[in-house]
């Protein structure tokens, strides 16, 4: 038994029961992606990366590798959050929703880890 009113129990929790945390993380990752995306595209376009050796040389620079890993991590996280919203909004069945949310997490985590591993292999070799 709780002494809180029904309004007090739901205030600030939103439709999904998580409050503004998910919304806030989506905005933070979007803002972080703006300068990272500009840097990544500008950096790629300013170097002739037409061979494996050129790519290794570019990613061999410590700051390039760190910023690329940060870009990949932020991009994977932002994408996961966005797909999560679509699943929560448009999938009706509880079982299907839970399953798709789990698959979404696994796919984005796997893709992020694979991309970060590739960056590390290229930068450390």
Write up what this structure looks like:
The chain is mainly α and 125 residues long. The protein contains five helices and no strands. It has helices at 6-10, 21-45, 52-59, 62-90, 94-124. Helix 2 crosses helix 4 (62-90) and helix 4 packs antiparallel against helix 5.
Outline the fold blueprint.
Blueprint (H helix, E strand, L loop, with lengths): L5 H5 L10 H25 L6 H8 L2 H29 L3 H31 L1
Helix pairs in contact: 2-4, 3-5, 4-5
What is the number of beta strands?
Answer: 0
Secondary-structure element string: HHHHH
Assigned CATH architecture: Up-down Bundle
Mean pLDDT: 89
In short:
The protein is 78% helix and 0% strand.
Salient structural properties:
125 residues; 0% strand; 3 helical TM bundles of succinate and fumarate reductases; elongated; mainly alpha
